[in-house]
C-alpha cells in the first residue's frame, strides 16, 4: 500500500479549505490534490453548510479573517455542534504573519486542533493533512464500534447500514417487501438559532424517543444527522409504510416543548421508498431514494411527506431531454444575443454538460499565474 492517506485502499480522504481568497484555496488544492479530495468554501457560512451536508470531510483548514462568518465563529459552531461527527473534526486555523502569540493561544483555547501560518509550503500543509486525517479516521472507527448514537441511543449510520444489508438480503432471498424512510425536523437550524443548544438537544432526544416508541420490534431506527433520522421497515409494502410514516409524523407533530418563555411545536418531514425487491438492489439504493424524496419535501410548502416511487420525476427514470446538436447551436445563439432566458429548461443540463470542460479550462488558465506559494501572504 502506498504512503497516501486514504479512508480505504481506494477512497481518498476529503479535506475542506475555507478562505475568502481564491488564490489561497487554489494553491492549497494544488498542494493536496494528488493525495486528497479537496473541497473549497468561500467563507465560514459556506464551510459550515458543507460540513453539515458532507459526512466524508475529515479535516478542516480555515482562515481567521473572512466575511459573513469568520474562522473563530466557524470553530465555535463546529465544537458546539450536536452532530458528534462534526464536533470532533480536526480544525486547523490559518493565521497571518501579523497574528500574535496571544491570538494563537485564543485559537487553541477556542478548540482549534492546530494552526498554520501564511505563507505556508506544501510540506507544512501535507504533514498536517496526513496527521489529522489519520486521527479523524481512528476517532470515526471507534465511534462506529459502539453502534449507537450517543445523544439519543438510537443506532448510528454505520449500524443502520449493517442492519439494512442483512434485512435486504433476507428480503431478496425470500422475495419479501421492504421499505425505508428518512425523517428530518423541518427548519431545525432556525429553531437552534432562536432557542439555543440545550432546547435543541431536548427536542432531538424527545423526537428520537417518540420515534422509537412508535415502531415495531422488527423495525430499525437510527440518527444519521443533527436532526435527521432514518427508519428501516422490513416486511412492509408501500401502503403499510405510508401508514407507519403518517403515524410517526402525527405523533411527533403533536409534541409541545415549553421553553419557559414560549411553547414550540415541530414539523417532521419524511421521504420514503418501497422499491421493487429484485436482484442487484442495494441497501444504499434505499437510502439514496429516501434522501431524494426527503429533499424534495424540504424544499416545498404544504404536505411534508413524499414517496420516491410515486413522485419520481421523469428525469430520474433515465428519460433524458431530447436535446440535439441543433438545440445546442440555437442555445449558443440565444446566449450571444443576450436572450439566454429563452433557452428551453429541458436543454439546460445538456448545455452545461457541454460547456463545463470549457469553463474549467478558462478558470484554470486564469488561475495558473496565481497559484505559486510565493503569493501566499
Quick structural summary:
The protein has 377 residues and is an alpha/beta fold.
Protein architecture, described:
With 377 residues, the protein is an alpha/beta fold. It folds into three domains: 6-146, Rossmann fold (3-Layer(aba) Sandwich), CATH 3.40.50; 157-317, Alpha-Beta Plaits (2-Layer Sandwich); 320-361, no CATH class. Helices cover 47% and strands 17% of the residues. It has twelve helices and 14 strands. The radius of gyration is 24 Å and the shape is globular. Mean pLDDT is 83; it is low at 1-10, 314-321 and 370-377.
Strand content: 15-25%
What gyration radius follows from the Cα positions, in whole Å? 24 Å
Distance between the termini: 36 Å
Helix content: 40-55%
Quaternary status = single chain
The CATH superfamily title of the largest domain: Reverse transcriptase/Diguanylate cyclase domain
CATH architecture grouping of the largest domain: 2-Layer Sandwich
Structural class by helix and strand composition: alpha/beta
For the record, the CATH class of the largest domain is Alpha Beta
Q: Strands of the biggest beta sheet: in what spatial order?
A: 4-3-5-6-7
Helix segment count?
A: 12
User: Tell me about the biggest sheet?
Assistant: 5 strands, parallel
Number of strands: 14
Taking pLDDT < 50 over at least 5 consecutive residues as the criterion, the unreliable ranges are 1-10, 314-321, 370-377
Which outline best applies? globular
Q: Mean pLDDT, nearest integer?
A: 83
Reading the helices and strands in chain order gives EEEHEHEHHEHEHHEHEEHEEEHEHH
Q: Could you say how many structural domains there are in total?
A: 3
CATH topology of the largest domain: the name is Alpha-Beta Plaits
